[in-house]
Specification:
Largest sheet: 9 strands, mixed
Mean pLDDT: 89
CATH architecture of the largest domain: 3-Layer(aba) Sandwich
Strand order of the largest sheet: 2-1-10-9-11-12-13-14-15
Number of strands: 27
Strand content: 15-25%
Distance between the termini: 37 Å
Low-confidence stretches: 4-10
Length: about 525
């Protein structure tokens, strides 16, 4: 999807951390930034990196890049050193717009000839992120002063490519997803589909609590702007603050990830009941599997307002289901909608029978742009389904039921083969999360001479909770097959997740495999 859509000047506002920007001001500032970037040497086909937390200026910058026919490259602001150097270098970005507190980190790895434009951290954003008020570096132009040197861009580019989203890098170096511009005639269709599937009306009120460097919230923001929605951005997710914002701004629609559900449900009951959430008509979730008991609990709390979709940065949303559909097909991530398609293939490249597990291949919507990986077209080609043009895999395993609803088992790379048996850790992780006192769980395979791999569980417990390994194992044994019981249980102070809820299992798994068969 393109960041090309221009919101109407009469639409409501964009806010974050207590700071609000009307759409008219937003459009003027985006136009001035576009002119400034043009005079910096940015043009069609170029890229600029954005290393910022959620705030209105973030969206102004991405919109400005699109007006020039350039692409913004949202960068995970948690990245340090090598990861940050990799994205800035691999993307070929010609400029970096960066919050003041991260200028030093960017400068240390900046490729030669790349210009920095500094963006002061708004006090409300700093406070939400637990930062003291941030001084500016004094070494680079400041966005608000710099943009006022320019008039808004007079003529926007006809072809405006989308942002270049980098994968989370859970199994290796992040890869940039390079998407083609969407023809202008398809943009209106994309907006109509967004309003329909997200169940929100033009001019409605939406809340985006996840960081904009991820594909789902980034795309959500673009389409929300195009639809003229009133947009509230959270600089960083906090469960009670989420509820407060819903009540204060009478939020009608929000997009979240399942980890946020877990944190919301763990608020004390009296805290959850303190806030009026009756304005919510649609809560959309994606990006990671949601344990069924968590989703049941959320529907019991909020009512049948949950909507789920499945897809990837490469494909966009392909399957959808609302609450009634999910309750009729518990555990599903929905079925293909519109011009999208899903097929599950076995190792021979042929479709597996209904209910049988295989690798999931997706056909994106006709409105979704073609894509490749920046600097790695071979990886893109390897995703194609043999003999099925347009179908690609993003590495998930699952099955279809008789009604065409899709169910995920796990990531292909996370599957464990123990004694010749395929084991999907996601099921076990969901079981562990149902144990009182377990806050987070990661299950994966470790080397074993007899079975090849055996299971280990790394757990994060609630503060003050003490669990024993046998108590954990007994909990799983009472609910799942014995071969799914972890051989070992390790307790961690905190599991490595990013703000979208993606778990970096590799950081836990790699030490077990170090030095074996050249894996590391």
């Amino acid at each position: 999807m393109s960041d090309t859509v221009v919101p109407p000047a009469t639409a409501p506002a964009i806010r974050s951390g207590g700071h609000e920007r009307g759409y008219a001001e937003f459009l003027e500032r985006a136009g001035r930034i576009a002119t400034g970037l043009r005079d910096t040497g940015i043009g069609p086909g170029d890229r600029i990196a954005v290393v910022m937390r959620n705030e209105p200026a973030y969206l102004e910058i991405t919109a400005a890049a699109a007006q020039l026919g350039a692409s913004a490259v949202p960068v995970n602001w948690h990245f340090k050193h090598d990861d940050l150097r990799h994205v800035l270098t691999d993307s070929g970005s010609k400029a970096v717009l960066v919050h003041s507190d991260m200028v030093a980190a960017v400068t240390a790895v900046l490729p030669a000839g790349v210009r920095i434009i500094e963006v002061p951290v708004p006090d409300g954003v700093a406070a939400a992120c637990g930062l003291a008020p941030q001084p500016t570096s004094g070494a680079h132009p400041l966005l608000d002063t710099w943009l006022m040197e320019y008039e808004p861009l007079a003529q926007a580019a006809a072809d405006r490519p989308p942002t270049v989203i980098y994968s989370s890098g859970t199994t290796g170096r992040p890869k940039g997803v390079l998407r083609a511009p969407v023809p202008q005639e398809r943009l209106a269709d994309a907006v109509r589909s967004f309003l329909e599937y997200f169940a929100v009306a033009p001019g409605g009120r939406t809340l985006i609590p996840a960081p904009l460097y991820h594909a789902s919230p980034s795309q959500h923001a673009v389409l929300a702007l195009a639809s003229g929605l009133d947009i509230t951005l959270m600089p960083r997710f906090d469960a009670e603050e989420f509820l407060r914002l819903v009540e204060r701004h009478r939020i009608e629609q929000a997009q979240v990830v399942p980890t946020m559900f877990v944190r919301l449900l763990r608020l004390p009951k009296d805290v959850r009941e303190r806030y009026d959430l009756s304005s919510l008509t649609s809560v959309v979730h994606a990006a990671a599997p949601c344990p069924p008991y968590i989703k049941h609990a959320m529907i019991d709390w909020l009512g049948p307002v949950l909507r789920e979709y499945y897809g990837g940065s490469e494909t966009g949303a392909v399957t959808w289901c609302d609450s009634p559909e999910w309750l009729a097909h518990p555990g599903t991530v929905g079925r293909a909608e519109g011009t999208c398609g899903v097929v599950v293939l076995g190792s021979d490249g042929e479709p597996v029978p209904t209910g049988a597990t295989g690798e999931i291949y997706l056909r994106p919507s006709d409105n979704w742009p073609q894509f490749t990986y920046l600097g790695d077209p071979a990886k893109r080609a390897a995703m194609e389904a043999p003999g099925r043009p347009g179908y690609v895999t993003i590495g998930d395993i699952g099955h279809l039921d008789a009604d065409g609803y899709l169910y995920l088992s796990d990531r292909r790379n996370d599957m464990v083969i123990s004694g010749g048996v395929n084991i999907y850790p996601a099921e076990i992780e969901g079981c562990l999360l149902s144990l009182d006192g377990v806050r987070d769980a990661a299950v994966f395979g470790i080397p074993d001479e007899e079975f090849g791999e055996v299971l280990v569980a790394h757990l994060e417990t609630e503060p003050g909770v003490v669990l024993g390994a046998e108590e954990v194992r007994d909990h799983v044994a009472g609910r799942l097959a014995r071969y799914k019981v972890p051989r070992a249980v390790v307790f961690e102070e905190r599991l490595p997740r990013d703000e979208s809820g993606k778990l970096f299992k590799r950081r836990l798994r790699d030490p077990y495999w170090a030095g074996r068969d050249g894996v590391i």
